[in-house]
Amino acid sequence: MQELVLIQPRGAAGTEWTSEAASAAVRREFEERLAECGPLAYRVARGVLRNSADAEDVAQEALLRAYRRFHRLRDRNRFRAWLVRITFRLALDRARSAKRREQRETLWAQPVPRPTTEDLAASSEFQAHLDRAVEALPEKLRLVLLLSAMEGHTQEEVAAILGLPLGTVKSRLFFARKQLAEKLRCHVKNIKRR
Amino acid sequence: MPCEKYQAALIELAAADAEAGGELRTHLDGCISCRAALAAEQALFDAIDVGLRPSANAELPPSLLANVSARLAEGSAPQRGWLPVWVLAAATAVMVVGIVGVQRGWRAKTEQASKDLTVLESSPSADTPSGKGMGAKKLSTSSVRTTIRRRAVPAGVPLSETLTSATAVEPEVLVAPDQELLLAEYARALQNRPPVNRASANPEASLIEPMQLGPIEIAQLEVKPLPDLQPK
Asked: How many whole angstroms separate alpha carbon B105 and alpha carbon B113?
C-alpha cells in the first residue's frame, strides 16, 4: 500500500521565508531609527502637552504610524520630518480634546480654589504664564520654537527637519520669541514688584 | 525708562539675540536708561529660553521604546502595496456606473421585446374576429401593453399562448333556451358573409337582411324552493 506524504511546495516555502526575512530586516531597521528618533517624538509631544503620560501615548502612536509607513520613509531626513509633523499634529489634537474635556468638567465641578498663599514661587508663576503664552502661539511659530529649544538642534537642523529655508526658520523664531515677550513682560514686572 | 526712539529697536535687538551696531551702539554707550532697558529685555528673553528648555528636553521614559517594540512584535506589519484611497474610490465609482448602464440597457431591451410581442399577439382585426391571419400591424397603444401585463398568467404556460387564447375566445351571450337556435343561425350567417372592401363597396349591398324573429313565448314560471335552502 502506497503511503501518502504531506509535502509543501518548494516555491511557496521559499517565498514565505523570503517575506519573513524581509519583514524582520525592515523591523530591525526601524528599531534602529526608533532609538534615534524616539526622543525627538517624545520631546515634541511633551513640549505641546507638558504632561509626561500624554506625551508618551502620543509619541507611541506617532512611532507606530511611522512604522506602518516605513516603506515610504526610508530616507532619514524625510523620516524625521514626517515624525516631527505627525507627533506635533497628534499632540495638538490631544491637547485640544483635553481642553474641551476640562471645560466640560469645569462647568459641573466646584470652582477651582485660587492660590491664596503669597509665597507662591515667582519662577513657577512665570512658567505657568509662559506655558499659556506658548499655547497661544500660531502652530507654525510654535513648532519652530519647540524644535529650536531642543538641545543640539541648530537652526539649520530645524530648517532641514521641517523642510523650510533657513531664513524662514529664523524669522519664525524671531516672531515667536517676540510674541512671547510681549505677553510675559507685564508678568515679569508684577513678579518683580512682589 | 528707555528713550522712546530706541524702544522698539531695543526689543528687536534682544529678540534677535544679536549685537547692537551703528547708531544704536553709540546711543547705548551714552544712555544708562536704554542700557538698563536692553538688559531687562535680554533677561526676559533668557527667562523665556530657560522656561522652554525643560519641556523641550524632557528625559525619554524607558517604557516608551519598550512599548513600541512590544506593539511591533504583536504583528502590526508596515503597510505595503495598498492602493491609495482615491484609486479605490474611483474604481468603485466606475463599477457602479457600469452596473447601472448595463442594467438600463437590459431593461430597455426587455421592454422593447415585450412591446413587440404584445402588439403582434393582441391586436385583433375587424375582418378576422379570432385575430388569426392578421399581418404584423403594430399598435403603439400603451393601454394594450398595460392590460396584458397585469393579467395573471398561470405558471408554465408561455406568454404567447396565453395571449392568443385570451384574444381568440368567442363572446358568450345569455339567451332564452328557445332562442338559442336563432342566435346560432345568425352567427353562422355573420361568419359566412363575403369579405367586404369597405373603401369601394356599396354600403347598402354589403348589409345583411334584418333577421326575422317571431314573438317571444314565455312559459309560465313555476317557483320552487331549492332543496338545500329549506328551513329546518
From this structure: 12
CA-based nearest residue in chain B for residue A186: B44
Tell which of B46, B48, B82, B83 to mutate to test the A interface (max A CBs under 10 Å).
B48
Chain B contact present for A18, CB below 8 A? no
Q: Are A26 and A67 in contact (CB under 8 A)?
A: no
Q: Say if A151 is an interface residue toward chain B (CB within 8 Å).
A: yes
A126/B61 touch (CB, cutoff 8 Å), yes or no: no
* Most confident among A175-189, B74-88, B216-230 (mean pLDDT): A175-189
Q: Which of B51, B61, B78 lies nearest to residue A69, judging by beta carbons?
A: B78
Task: Please tell me the distance from the alpha carbon of residue A136 to that of residue B56, in angstroms, as a whole number.
Answer: 17
Does the beta carbon of B75 lie under 8 angstroms from any beta carbon of chain A?
no
Cell of A131: 506655558
H helices of B75-179, in order, are: 85-122, 142-150, 159-168
Contact of B68 with chain A, judged by CB distance below 8 Å, is answered with: yes
Flag whether residue A37 sits within 8 Å of chain B, measured between CB atoms.
no
Q: Which grid coordinates belong to B149?
A: 401585463
Residue B118, phi then psi, degrees to nearest 5: -60, -45
What cell was used for B138? 403594430
- CA A162 to chain B, closest CA, distance in angstroms equals 17
* pLDDT tens, residue by residue, A125-169: 888 888 889 989 999 999 999 999 988 788 999 998 888 999 999
pLDDT digit string (tens) for B33-43?
Answer: 888 888 888 88
pTM for the predicted model, two decimal places: 0.53
| Grid cell in block for residue B203 | 354600403
Structure-block grid coordinates of residue B221: 314560471
Helices (H) and strands (E) in chain A, counts: 7, 0
Choice between B164 and A160, residue whose per-residue pLDDT is larger: A160
Collect all residues with Cβ–Cβ distance below 8 Å to A186 and sequence separation of at least 6. none
Give the closest residue to B12 by CA, choosing from B36, B35, B45.
B45
